[in-house]
Structure to design on (699 residues):
């Protein structure tokens, strides 16, 4: 370390420390885990800067942080209450107005309010592996403490619009190129910041404060281009477009006027439904899969992961495990299947190389950690095996018997089943307490959701091991109990059933899909089914059909489509007709004829449905099933349902998930919509007690 002198550290307020090094005061935020700008931190920094203002013995101030990162932004937990002074804009203004020259020493991440504080300094130094960003839109807001305006003056309109509307983080070389930071270091950021500050002072060329720089209004064609790009990406989210509009409007204003407008929009959006929904998910994502009863349970040590079945799902799981640092063994049944598995892995590696996520050396290194084999006995040393074979109870039980015979007794045994009864699978082994479900979503190396299925006998440390693996894989784990389809596929079934009823009763598949994409889903239920292949849903429907009460109305159309050879995109006809070279499907008179014939046979007089009616019925179906799942104790919290639907099924993030959306709009409204379903579809569509209670409690 390049320190030549220092005075003992002094503490202004608990989360802030000041020490003097080399004649420079280093003000460090110490507020684990991510040095969020809580009220105490803001107060501590204000106190520090006002104390140091009168200190004639120092040459400058370095704004720094301890622990794992520079300040990662405002404290999101404080967003649900009125902010207490000192407010962030006042702190930022105070940093910029400091009579001493200032430098920020960035490492880890400088995000949101953290970057706004750094941008108020005269200089910024960042470590080469650090990242900076203004991720506010991801929380449904815009930067509210001058960050946009300072970035605009440092990096220009186009770069700032990109940063603010996407919320993406940028690495050190890009940040340097954009002018957001002045220097990148591979050493200690505080040492580098002190040296940079002193160097600039010695040569009397300290940069101007960002707010004093000149900004020019953007060209109209640039704004138009950014506007269409942002509209396409934000799909129903309001903050990105509002941010762009504001940026355009404020580019011709004085810094003070512009910052005041930023603040107004920040305050307006912060109170809005979208910001509340996004905050809800931010917190839910970080608290998911942490049940109280596992607080003191140690997971088992997992280093080597086995996967049985090298199909699309098994390869994706193996690949995800490999990328996260596990040794991986994939078992397939014969040489041909193994060859296809090898090809799948190669395609995954190639894809990553093409996208610049991996280089050839990285791939070769990863390949040293994977074994593809036909022998179950090669799983002998694995600590966890995930079975990803064909969705059939007998097949799965046979595999588990073989695992029982080949693995150490303490190894954890998991099934990736999406519907089947984990307890029945567990009965195939001597010790069912070592069995749980780890339900990945396809593609397994991309999708973040993982349902962790707790069987009746699953041991606490086995469950804790599943959660630890999920976290290491970067997944969002949601614990569910055993039931057909667990949480997600059970809700999907209710959703698809009502979607089909609506079409039987008079809507077109396009009407239904359009209503849901307007709501914010990336695709409607029929387009999704065509993409996945209709026969998967068909096989499931037949399996479940055996246990369905004959008094309940059953959807008819899927069966008829599959039985007339319509399998979806794979044979260019399903709910829609597909033509070579076209991404989306078109309506097909053949499908219409099948629908009309089915409705006529059932004696249904078809009528049109307004888009809002479609949306309300489909949401009511999801929420009511979510409520049943909650009342049965399959998941513990409404936010678990939200996470499952947002991360596994395309529910729009800015709506917060079905349960949050229902609560935000009043549970009584959903209860009334469920009553409509009950009247229209009869038995099986009664409102869940949980929902009835929630509606009662919220009035
Ligand atoms: N406020 C409060 N807590 C936060 C937080 C924040 N801004 N950011 C992270 N945390 C907490 C998490 O809840 C988590 O807590 P637990 O350990 O108790 O679960 C912990 O910090 C670690 O977070 P992650 O698990 O996400 O850790 P990570 O290493 O994977 O990621 C991170 C770190 C990149 C900083 C990530 O947490 C992140 O992106 N945080 C959000 C940053 C953000 O959006 N900042 C802008 C806030 S808005 C703003 O600043 C504008 C304004 O002016 C008001």
């Amino acid at each position: 370390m390049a320190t030549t002198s220092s005075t003992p550290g002094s503490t202004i307020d608990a989360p802030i420390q000041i020490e003097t090094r080399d004649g420079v005061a280093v003000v460090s935020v110490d507020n684990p885990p991510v040095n969020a700008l809580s009220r105490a931190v803001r107060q501590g920094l204000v106190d520090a800067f006002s104390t140091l203002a009168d200190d004639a013995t120092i040459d400058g101030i370095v704004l720094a942080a301890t622990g794992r990162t520079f300040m990662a932004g405002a404290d999101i937990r404080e967003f649900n209450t009125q902010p207490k002074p000192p407010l962030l804009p006042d702190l930022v203004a105070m940093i910029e107005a400091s009579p001493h020259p200032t430098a920020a020493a960035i490492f880890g991440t400088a995000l949101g309010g953290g970057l706004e504080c750094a941008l108020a300094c005269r200089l910024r130094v960042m470590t080469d592996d650090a990242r900076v960003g203004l991720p506010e839109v991801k929380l449904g807001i815009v930067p509210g403490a001058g960050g946009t305006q300072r970035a605009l003056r440092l990096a220009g309109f186009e770069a700032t619009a990109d940063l603010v509307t996407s919320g993406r983080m940028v690495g050190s070389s890009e940040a340097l190129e954009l002018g957001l930071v002045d220097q990148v270091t591979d050493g200690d950021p505080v040492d580098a910041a002190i040296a940079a500050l002193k160097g600039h002072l010695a040569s009397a060329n300290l940069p101007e404060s960002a707010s004093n720089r000149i900004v020019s209004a953007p060209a109209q064609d640039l704004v138009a281009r950014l506007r269409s790009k942002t509209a396409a990406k934000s799909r129903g989210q309001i903050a990105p477009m509002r941010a762009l509009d504001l940026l355009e409007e404020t580019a011709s204003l004085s810094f003070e006027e512009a910052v005041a407008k930023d603040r107004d929009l920040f305050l307006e959006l912060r109170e809005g439904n979208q910001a509340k929904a996004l905050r809800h998910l931010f917190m839910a994502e970080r608290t998911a899969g942490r049940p109280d009863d596992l607080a003191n349970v140690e997971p088992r040590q997992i280093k080597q992961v086995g996967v049985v079945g090298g199909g699309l799902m098994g390869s994706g799981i193996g690949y995800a495990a490999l990328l996260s640092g596990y040794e991986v063994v994939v078992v397939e049944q014969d040489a041909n299947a193994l060859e296809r598995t090898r090809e799948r892995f190669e395609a995954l590696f190639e894809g990553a190389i093409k996208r610049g996520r991996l280089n050839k050396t990285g791939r070769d290194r990863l390949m040293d950690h994977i074994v593809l084999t036909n022998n179950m006995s090669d799983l002998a040393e694995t600590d966890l095996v995930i079975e990803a074979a064909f969705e059939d109870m007998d097949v799965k039980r046979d595999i588990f018997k073989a695992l029982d015979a080949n693995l150490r007794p303490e190894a954890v045994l998991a099934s990736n089943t999406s519907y089947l009864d984990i307890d029945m699978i567990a009965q195939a082994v001597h010790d069912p307490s070592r069995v749980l479900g780890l339900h990945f979503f396809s593609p397994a190396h991309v999708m973040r959701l993982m349902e962790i299925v707790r069987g009746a006998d699953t041991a606490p440390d086995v469950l804790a091991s599943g959660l630890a693996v999920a976290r290491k894989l970067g997944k969002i784990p949601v614990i569910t109990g055993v039931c057909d389809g667990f949480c997600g596929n059970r809700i999907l079934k209710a959703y698809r059933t009502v979607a089909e009823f609506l079409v039987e009763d008079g809507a077109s598949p396009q009407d239904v899909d359009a209503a849901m994409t307007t709501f914010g889903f990336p695709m409607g239920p029929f387009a999704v089914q065509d993409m996945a292949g209709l026969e998967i849903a068909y096989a499931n429907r037949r399996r479940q059909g055996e246990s369905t009460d004959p008094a309940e109305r059953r959807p008819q159309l899927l069966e008829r489509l599959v039985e007339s050879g319509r399998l979806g995109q794979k044979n260019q006809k399903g709910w829609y007709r597909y033509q070579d070279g076209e991404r989306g499907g078109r309506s097909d008179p053949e499908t219409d004829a099948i629908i009309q014939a089915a409705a006529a046979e059932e004696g249904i007089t078809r009528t049109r449905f307004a888009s809002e009616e479609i949306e309300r019925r489909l949401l009511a179906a999801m929420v009511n099933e979510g409520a049943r799942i909650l009342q049965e104790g399959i998941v513990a919290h409404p936010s678990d349902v939200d996470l499952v639907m947002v991360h596994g099924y395309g529910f729009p993030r800015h709506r917060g998930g079905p349960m949050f959306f229902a609560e935000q709009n009043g549970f009584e409204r959903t209860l009334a919509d469920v009553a409509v379903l009950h009247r229209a579809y009869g038995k099986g569509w009664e409102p869940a007690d949980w929902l009835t209670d929630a509606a009662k409690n919220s009035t």
Residues 488-698 form a domain with the N-(1-d-carboxylethyl)-l-norvaline Dehydrogenase; domain 2 fold (CATH 1.10.1040.50). Residues 1-13 have pLDDT under 50 and may be disordered.
